[in-house]
Design a protein that fits this description.
single chain, 200 residues, alpha/beta, Rossmann fold, six-stranded mixed beta sheet, 7 helices, 6 strands, 46% helix
Amino acid sequence: MLLMSVGAHAADEPAVLVFGDSLSAGYGIDVDRSWPSLLQSRLASSGYEHRVVNASISGETTEGGVTRIQTTLDKFNPDLVILELGGNDGLRGFPAERIRGNLRKIIESAQASGTAVVLLGIRIPTNYGSRYTQSFENVYRELAAQLDVPWIEFFMEGIALNKELMQDDGIHPTAEAQPILLENAWPIITQALDSKISGR
């Protein structure tokens, strides 16, 4: 399990928790070049005092996320959870209802702890047919609406179809793609943090 605080920060600083899979764990690249590491620098330069804790695990599923979310929340008490899970479930053809239920549990656990959540939407290849693909993608849209969670439709926008920004496996983004991942997520991250800060 990867629980990495990005940079040297005091434990009493407010935390942003990245809770994802290999897309956020820096799979295949230097972790210092991963988008959560870049997020730490971006937050600091933008005047936010938050430390970034990366609790992402390569290969993680939504079910695995459910089993560890409460312990992680209790340990770090984050202001914000950036939720990036579901891709591995979709690639394995897990039922969309199961994925939705697991993501709902994770979001509701965070919200019950007083933690804001943003949701990073994922898309998958059409290996299992267009019907399954659409059902999978709808999970994020529906949860965001039902639970009032800021979200982006496709975290890998501008990357997934560009071979120059993908590793040889065709699944994971390169180091050069990490700033784009951060740019994709940045607007909803700041939206959620500003709302959280103003509500204190």
